[in-house]
Amino acid sequence: MALRWRPGRRHELEGGYQWAKRSGETVLSDTITFRDTAYAAGLRVNSESGTSQMFLTYRYAFMAKEKTQIGAALGIGLIFLRQSIAATAGATAGGPDTAIVQFSREGNINGPNASIGGYGRFQLGERWYLESDLRAIYIKIDNIKAAVVELGLAGRYFLSNKVGLELGYGLGSYSVEIQGTNNFAGINRTGKIKYTVNGWRFGGVYAF
Question: Dihedral of CA 25/27/32/35: which sign?
Answer without folding.
Answer: positive
